[in-house]
Design a protein that fits this description.
- This protein is α+β, with helices and mostly antiparallel strands.
- The protein has two domains: 115 residues, Archaeosine Trna-guanine Transglycosylase, Chain: A, domain 4; 75 residues.
- Helix content is 32%, strand content 32%.
- The protein has a five-stranded mixed β-barrel with strand order 1-3-5-6-7.
- The longest helix has 18 residues.
- The N and C termini lie far apart (44 Å).
């Protein structure tokens, strides 16, 4: 998986991690076409955090993105009560954007390199007892009704899962979430999360 691959991008004010789930409302023509193509061809797209610009492109503005994102597949879709198309996506692998451009359709396209390690199904890293408190915290977060409806598949004995899910779910700044995504070492990520959780607890 070291070769560059071309994928479409969906820039959002959201940071996705492998194994995470996100519900989206689709109304722009470029994204309706993207969803149709993905469902028909059983392919996915990349989600990257916006650095500048809005999620909906306005005349005279430009979108710039962080170059580390997560590839997602559509796992569910439906027409919402407001008439818009609703989809649920699930993250599968982290990638690095090597080149990015805007297609004639308005859709961002990118050449990306996929991470060999940060992906769903990678070799498990067993947890030791020092992180049992973080595992308990994640269990409590998962039981929240808004999180419970995501139907997340979490392996509580896997350091990858613990880091990814806590990074998504704890209440921290979006840029801090992006910094956690950009880390390649799962041990460094979990130590950073441990410090962030400690800071939050002291603040409360």
């Amino acid at each position: 998986m070291t070769d560059l691959q071309e994928i479409p991008l969906f820039p959002l004010r959201v940071v996705m991690f492998p194994g995470g789930r996100l519900e989206l409302q689709i109304f722009e023509r470029r994204y309706i076409d993207l969803v149709r193509h993905c469902l028909k061809s059983e392919t996915g797209f990349g989600i990257c955090l916006l650095k500048q610009g809005e999620e909906v492109i306005k005349a005279g503005t430009q979108q710039t993105i962080h170059n580390i994102g997560t590839f997602v597949f559509i796992v569910d879709w439906d027409q919402l009560e407001n008439g818009l198309l609703g989809i649920t996506v699930e993250g599968t692998a982290k990638f690095t954007v090597e080149d990015c451009w805007q297609a004639d359709s308005g859709l961002l396209q990118a050449e990306v390199k996929f991470s060999e390690n940060e992906r769903v199904g990678n070799q498990l890293i067993p947890l030791d007892n020092q992180f049992s408190g973080l595992a308990d915290l994640l269990q409590n977060l998962e039981n929240h009704p808004l999180i419970e409806r995501k139907n997340l598949d979490i392996n509580y004995n896997n350091l990858w899962d613990l880091g990814w899910r806590l990074a998504e779910l704890i209440p921290i700044e979006i840029e801090t979430k992006q910094a956690l995504l950009e880390l390649d070492d799962p041990w460094e990520r979990i130590r950073n999360i441990e410090q962030l959780v400690s800071d939050l607890a002291n603040r409360w």
